[in-house]
């Protein structure tokens, strides 16, 4: 499949809309042509990296397609990144061009050229910074084959059709946001962009991608699922049982997902409705993804597996001799279904016992009134480290009540010693990183739950 075939098949259909603007597939092609003309005059060579600092791709949806038509690598960056974060990234990868607002080629003439490119080419096409769960962000390189194999199989799973409408509120410097554009492109569907869900949902949505906090805000406004909505794909972190229960009671078609940048977004999906199912276990592995276990670490390979990480200007493979990628995630595998239990590097030792924070978090999220939870290791003179929990509460709960709830299902050494209130404000990205929350804890910035 090539770019031109998709454009001509869907030329008059709507590709993107915001509250103020719309863009057909034909207009996308014109914009990509203008970007292509601009880029061709910048002295760039195939394989060079073009970066754009943006939260949403809405101002330049044609830019990545123009890059790919010229063999360039597109790199979206969080506009909030500080120099201290960008400097080590620049040591790993040479960015040849930073696209700025004055570069936007709205006034450039439309070139009379029908360009195209193979959507499944195996050369590098996109660099995404990983979430930094290992302590620092890495520059992951994905090919067009990775991206569009992922887009097509997930679109097929959700039966996405021409003219259908997928809500887009996730940032495009993460793979979860950018992937929505590619799914809609390959199926002739519409990306429906909004800054947030605070002001309600657009009309006639068929699909949505959200994190749990966004879903909670939606349910505060919407009493029932929109008539045409067929799928709400939740990702980013664990889903509180109370939130899932409320969504299912109101008829929302909720799916949870496991995915990562290195696999070009989603690896496995769990359906939670018809019949209602609050259990996050046993997600179905999507076609084109292979999953294995080494011990209990999740190994991955397949058509969507990335090319490697940029390190000191070169691309380093992260695969073993059999082509498997060690994800760092822990899980169980049964009958082609995957259950993710945590991350290997989150585990810590307390008094000689291994503590997996995600296990305690899952139990906390089952408690009525707990909306979010993060378990952290606090230094302790006797045990080395003790588990403490940071919790977001929807109603008043005492620390002793939370401990009593955990004691119903966990041994004493896994019960958090103290609980702290979730901090106000947002961390960079779409979820709090453990190291950022731990920093808040250690400097005494968190308020104790009494």
UniProtKB/TrEMBL annotation:
Signal peptide annotation: none
A Gene Ontology BP annotation from the UniProt entry: fatty acid metabolic process
One Pfam family it belongs to: AMP-binding
InterPro entries xref list: AMP-bd_C, AMP-bd_C_sf, AMP-binding_CS, AMP-dep_synth/lig_dom, ANL_N_sf
Domain AMP-dependent synthetase/ligase: 12-99, 123-310
Domain AMP-binding enzyme C-terminal: 359-416
One function term, GO molecular function aspect: medium-chain fatty acid-CoA ligase activity
SUPFAM superfamilies in the cross-refs: Acetyl-CoA synthetase-like
Family of this protein: Belongs to the ATP-dependent AMP-binding enzyme family.
Protein name as it appears in the record: Uncharacterized protein
Source organism of the structure: Caldithrix abyssi
């Amino acid at each position: 499949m090539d770019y031109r075939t998709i454009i001509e098949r869907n030329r008059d259909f709507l590709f993107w809309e915001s509250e103020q603007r719309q863009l057909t597939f034909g207009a996308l092609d014109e914009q990509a042509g203008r970007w292509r003309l601009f880029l061709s005059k910048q002295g760039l060579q195939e394989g060079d990296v073009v970066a754009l600092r943006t939260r949403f791709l809405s101002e330049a949806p044609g830019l990545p397609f123009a890059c790919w038509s010229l063999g360039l690598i597109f790199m979206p960056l969080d506009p909030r990144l500080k120099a201290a974060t960008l400097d080590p990234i620049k040591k790993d990868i040479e960015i040849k061009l930073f696209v700025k607002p004055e570069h936007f080629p709205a006034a450039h003439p439309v070139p009379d050229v029908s360009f195209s490119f193979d959507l499944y080419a195996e050369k590098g096409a996109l660099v995404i910074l990983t979430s930094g769960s290992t302590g620092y962000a890495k520059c992951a390189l994905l090919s067009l084959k990775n991206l569009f194999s992922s887009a097509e199989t997930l679109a097929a799973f959700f039966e996405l059709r021409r003219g259908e409408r997928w809500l887009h509120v996730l940032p495009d410097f993460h793979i979860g946001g950018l992937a929505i554009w590619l799914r809609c492109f390959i199926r002739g569907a519409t990306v429906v962009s909004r800054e947030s869900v605070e002001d309600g949902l657009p009309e006639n949505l068929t699909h949505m991608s959200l994190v749990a906090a966004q879903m909670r805000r939606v349910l505060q406004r919407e009493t029932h699922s929109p008539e045409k909505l067929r799928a709400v794909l939740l990702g980013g972190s664990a889903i509180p049982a109370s939130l899932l229960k409320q969504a299912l009671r109101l008829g929302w078609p909720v799916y949870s997902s496991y995915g990562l940048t290195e696999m070009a977004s989603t690896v496995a999906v769990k359906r939670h409705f018809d019949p209602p199912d609050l259990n996050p276990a046993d997600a179905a592995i999507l076609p084109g993804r292979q999953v294995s276990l080494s011990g209990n670490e999740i190994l991955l390979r397949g058509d969507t597996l990335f090319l490697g990480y940029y390190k000191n200007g070169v691309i380093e493979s992260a695969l073993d001799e059999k082509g498997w990628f060690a994800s760092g995630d822990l899980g169980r595998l049964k009958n082609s279904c995957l259950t993710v239990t945590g991350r290997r590097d989150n585990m810590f030792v307390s008094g000689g016992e291994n503590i997996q924070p995600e296990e305690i978090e899952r139990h906390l999220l089952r408690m009525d009134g707990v909306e979010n939870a993060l378990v952290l290791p606090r230094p302790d003179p006797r045990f080395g480290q003790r588990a403490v929990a940071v919790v977001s509460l929807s109603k008043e709960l005492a620390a002793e009540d939370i401990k009593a709830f955990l004691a119903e299902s966990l041994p004493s050494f896994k019960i958090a010693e103290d609980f702290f209130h979730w901090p106000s404000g947002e961390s960079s990205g779409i979820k709090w990183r453990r190291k950022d929350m731990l920093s808040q804890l250690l400097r005494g910035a968190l308020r104790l739950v009494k």
